[in-house]
Amino acid sequence: MENFVIPPDSALLRFVETAEKQLESYEPKLLPLFRQCYLNTLHTTVNVADDKTSFVITGDIPAMWLRDSTAQIRPYMPLAAEDESVRQVIAGLIRRQAQYLLIDPYANAFNQEANGHGHQDDKTQMNPWIWERKYELDSLCYPVQLLNDYVETTHDESIFDERIHHMLQLIVSTMQTEQYHDQVSKYTFERHGVASDTLPFSGRGTRTNFTGMVWSGFRPSDDACKFGYLIPANMFAVVILEHVSRFAHEIYHDEALATAAQQLRSEIQWGIETYGIVQHPRFGRMYAYETDGYGNYNLMDDANVPSLLSMPYLGYCTADAPLYVNTRAFVLSAENPYYFKGQSAKGIGSPHTPQGYIWHIGLIMQGLTSADEAEQDALIQMLLSTTGDTNFMHESFHPDDPAQFTRSWFAWANSLFGEFILRRLHMVGFGS
C-alpha cells in the first residue's frame, strides 16, 4: 500500500483555495484551521492498495472503522465528479468496505491485512482481519450511504459489481436476523474490563421484545447499548434501505432483494414510530435514544453519529419536523444527561469520554442541523476557541480548559468541521 498524495493541480486544492477566499471576508481566523482540518483525512489516513481499494484509518488507531472511514471521506464527495484522484479514493473505499462486510457483517473495525492485530482476546468469533467485533447497526448503514452518495455525484455505475450485490444482500439478511436477536442470532460478545465494553448475559445483551426494529449490541461510540433497540441507528437503517431497494431493482434486477429491503424498511419505521416515542413532561412527544420494546426507555443523546440530533443530517426527517424539534430541544438541554456546560463551551458529550467533556462532533452536528445562521456562527466561534491551540478538532475536551482533550488525531471530527464550514459558506450540503 502507498500513502495517498493529493496532486498539486487537483480540483480539490482549487476548491479549497476558493473556500479560503470566502473565509477571508467571513472569518479570517478560520483560514489555518479550515485547511488543516479539511485536508487532514487525505493527508494522513488514506492508503491506496494495488487492487484499487482504499484503507482509511480513523487517526490515532491503526484500524479502519466502517463508520469513521465513511464519515471521514464523505465531505470530499462533491469533488468526486471533477477530481479523478478523489473519485478513485472513494471508489476504492467502497470496494474495501464491501470486502470487509463479506468477511464479517458483525465487525465494526478491520485490519489492513490479515495480521491478527486488535482485540483478538475478545470472546466472540474473531479472525485475523478483524480489529474489533462489536456489532453496531450503523456499521451496516454507512457503506450504503457512501455508495449512494458516490453514484449520485459521479453517475459511475461501474461500481456495482457482484461483490457490491452480495454486500447489499448480506446487509439485509443480517438486519433481518437481528430483528429476532433473542430468538435466532448467534452473535455474542464479551470482553474483560469495563462494563461498557461488554454485553451482559453471556454476551447476548439485555432481552428485547420484537418491535420490527433491528437490535444493536453497541452504539456508534463503541459503548454497549443499555437497551437493544438504538433508535438513531434504526432511523439510519430506514434511510439506507430505500437505497438498497432501488439498487436491487434498477441495477441488479433482484426483485427479491428489493422487496425484502422495502419490507424491512417499513417494519423498522413502524417500530420506531410505535415503540420509540415517549411523552416527556417538559418537551412533549419526542424520540427516545434506546428502548427494549417492553416499555423501558433510555432518554439521552450521544455526540456520536447516528444520534438523535443528527436525524435531518442522516435524511430521516426534516429539521422542522415537530418530533425532531421537540427531541432537539431535549438533547440540547440539561435534561440530556450528556449535555454539558463550561466557561468555554456548551454541548453534547458521551459516556465514552470523561464526565463533563464536550465533543467537537456534537457541536459540529448541532451546526449542520441548524437553519439559524446566528446559531451556526456562535458554534463556529466555539469551535475556533476550543482546539487547545492545535488548529485541529478533537474527540472531546474539557469545557473549562480546552487544552485538556482526548485524541489529538481524530480525522472524523476534522473532516466534519470542514464540511460545516463549507455549508456555512453555502458551498456544499448534504441531507435535508
DSSP strand tally: 16
Q: Low-confidence segments, ≥5 residues, pLDDT <50?
A: none
Number of helices in the DSSP assignment: 16
Number of domains: 3
Could you give the order of strands across the largest sheet? Answer: 1-2-3
Distance N to C terminus: 37 Å
Quaternary state reads single chain
Q: Class by helix and strand content? A: mainly alpha
- Round the Cα radius of gyration to an integer and report it: 20 Å
- Strand percentage lies at 5-15%
Largest sheet: 3 strands, antiparallel
Which features characterize this protein?
44% helix, mainly alpha, 432 residues, 3-stranded antiparallel β-sheet, 16 helices
Give me a quick take on this structure.
Helices cover 44% and strands 11% of the residues. The chain is mostly helical. The chain folds into three domains: 1-135, no CATH class; 160-299, no CATH class; 301-432, no CATH class.
